[in-house]
Amino acid sequence: MPLARTLLALSLLAAGLSAQAADWSDSSIGYRYGSKFAEPYNPQDISKNILNLTHASGYKYGTNFFNADLLLSDSKDPSSAGSKDGAHEVYVVYRHTLDLEKVSGSPFKFGPVRGLGVTAGFDFNTKTDAGYNSKKRMLVAGPTLMLDVPGFLNVSLLGLKESNAPYSTFSGTATPRYDYKFHWMLTAAWAIPFNVGIPLSFEGYANFIAAKGRDEFGGQTARETNVDMQLMYDLSGGKNTFKLGLEYQYWKNKFGNDSGGPAGKGAIAKTPMIRAEYHF
């Protein structure tokens, strides 16, 4: 099956990243669940089970981050027209940040900023559903400010080059790969530990994405806001840890679909979730 081959390839990639010489590394498998997910053009609340594989590491000149999500929807987001089976999706993110101080030997510290980097990477997804069947491909690159906080807080301005080649099961029409207009994303990612008698961490990301011109069907895209944050409790401590927590995602104009247009309420997600992670 294509999905099985994709998951095998991602597992091998994550293993390869772990095998590189690293100053530090953290890999995890996780699970999260919510019942208020949304998809554009679908007015119903959707339940999803999500499995994830994550790897982060630091080496002599910078850091790597890799995440692969397997998203399994319920029947309200069907796998095909008239099916009672839910859609399934794989979404992958990779980022590499080159630390300019480590490369040049000169510090880049000012105010609350402890370092300056250059980030590059990609997103891709494949989804099997009743309508769009996304095949997103996106390259990203831009500068990153590393702020001086416990844990980390990185803020980046990334240029995005995105394309898609969907297939409509309703019309039976495959759309040739379409390139959106070059656009920008202001993004932040963080993991900040704190202790109030129990070991907690506040983690997440926030993406503010400019409109990307017209879509492959001629419709005007909209600016996106996507904030995903979680409060996690470390139940075990040490390197091999088990974390449990609560997560919340707010996503307006999902994938550039205007929530005030035909995409409707499905283009806005307000999704509480439970989340569990095992780190090794």
UniProtKB/TrEMBL annotation:
The UniProt record lists the keyword RNA-binding: no
Signal peptide range in chain numbering: 1-21
Keyword entries, A-Z: Signal, Viral envelope protein, Virion
GO cellular component, one term: cell outer membrane
UniProt cross-references to InterPro entries, sorted A to Z: Channel_Tsx-like_sf
Top-level taxon of origin: Bacteria
Protein name: Outer envelope protein
UniProt organism field: Paucibacter sediminis
Phylogenetic placement of the source organism: Bacteria, Pseudomonadati, Pseudomonadota, Betaproteobacteria, Burkholderiales
